[in-house]
UniProtKB/TrEMBL annotation:
It comes from Elstera cyanobacteriorum. The lineage of its organism: Bacteria, Pseudomonadati, Pseudomonadota, Alphaproteobacteria, Rhodospirillales. Residues 5-214 form the NAD-dependent epimerase/dehydratase domain. This is Complex I NDUFA9 subunit family protein. CDD domains: NDUFA9_like_SDR_a. PANTHER family: NADH DEHYDROGENASE [UBIQUINONE] 1 ALPHA SUBCOMPLEX SUBUNIT 9, MITOCHONDRIAL, NADH-UBIQUINONE OXIDOREDUCTASE 39 KDA SUBUNIT-RELATED. One of its GO terms (molecular function) is protein-containing complex binding.
Length: 315
């Protein structure tokens, strides 16, 4: 009998890749999302009736019981990069929301729980994002000691919110900011590799505990910005912005919808976003990991002058 798997936040960037892989295993996939119209677009990824969208809001606690009933596995992918009101605060979504999801799963007798966290999750961090990610982990592990927790570095791939954002900025802005001089280091991981790690945890119950997952190479923020400009065939000044200046900007700009930087993100950038080496990673999961150089140029080509095929003009 096919597994029933509930994916909370399944219509998001990572979720779409997870759902596609789960559908190939023959599992019945329940998509617990706030915007059910977005989830309906994923139904063609599986057979008729295999992918079932359900209205769930973990920040409010609505729809959880129905989504959990009879499930074999729950995957919580819900997270936010910036707060947006009382029901979209870091605390409500990433700490209390994760706890509500785990409690509902436990009450429904779901045997397996998988939680998406983030590299840098730390109860003692200056960043509320990192604090609440750590709180979410703790809440899940208190109820599911055998849970699998994944802490990815920056996730990249088509439609990502990192490289695409900066390439779009470079199209119109004369400069890209290097917060803190651009020295912060990251180990970006391909979205397909994150999805493979999560599906591995679904199919292999020995995958348990915390996994810090980053790609094969580490880069400074400055190197990532330089590579973004190269891949998109764009030119922009890379402007160093000291942390105090960035914090001042983030304090005011961060209150605007779709803000390019928030104060909390500035706090995150003060610490390298690299695996600590204290926990297993992609290697232990048997995943080689794709590099930024192998994947990113193909999807940033649309930003180059003249579009994807702009470089062919005049050839």
């Amino acid at each position: 009998m096919a597994q029933v798997i509930t994916v909370l936040g399944g219509s998001g960037f990572v979720g779409r890749h997870v759902v596609q892989r789960l559908a190939k295993t023959g599992a019945q996939v329940r998509l617990g999302v706030r915007n059910i119209e977005l989830a309906k677009r994923l139904k063609p990824l599986g057979d008729v009736g295999q992918i079932v969208p359900m209205t769930v809001d973990i920040a409010r606690g609505t729809g959880l019981a129905a989504a959990m009933a009879g499930a074999d596995v729950v995957i919580n992918l819900v997270g936010i990069l910036a707060p947006g009101g009382s029901n979209k605060s870091f605390q409500a979504v990433q700490a209390e929301g994760a706890q509500r999801a785990a409690e509902a799963a436990k009450a429904a007798g779901v045997p397996r729980f998988i939680q998406m966290s983030a590299l840098g999750a730390d109860a003692d961090s200056e960043s509320e994002y990192a604090q609440t990610k750590a709180a979410g982990e703790a809440a899940v592990l208190a109820l599911y000691p055998d849970a699998a927790i994944f802490r990815p570095s920056i996730i990249f791939g088509p439609d990502d919110g990192f490289f695409n954002k900066f390439a779009a900025m470079a199209r119109t802005a004369p400069a890209l900011p290097l917060i803190g001089g651009g020295a912060t280091r990251f180990q970006p991981i391909f979205v397909g590799d994150v999805a493979d790690a999560i599906v591995k945890a679904v199919t292999d119950p020995s995958v348990r505990g915390i996994y810090e997952i980053g790609g094969p190479k580490a880069y400074s923020f400055k190197e990532l910005m330089q590579f973004t400009l190269t891949a998109s065939h764009l030119s922009a000044l890379l402007l160093p912005v000291p942390f105090p200046v960035a914090a001042f900007i983030g304090l005011f700009v961060g209150m605007l919808p779709g803000a390019p930087i928030t104060l909390d993100q500035v706090k995150l950038l003060k610490v390298d976003n690299l695996p600590s080496g204290k926990f297993p990673g992609l290697k232990e999961l048997g995943i080689a990991g794709a590099t930024v150089e192998a994947i990113m140029p193909a999807y940033l080509a649309r930003f180059q002058p003249g579009g994807r095929f702009g470089s062919l003009h005049g050839a």
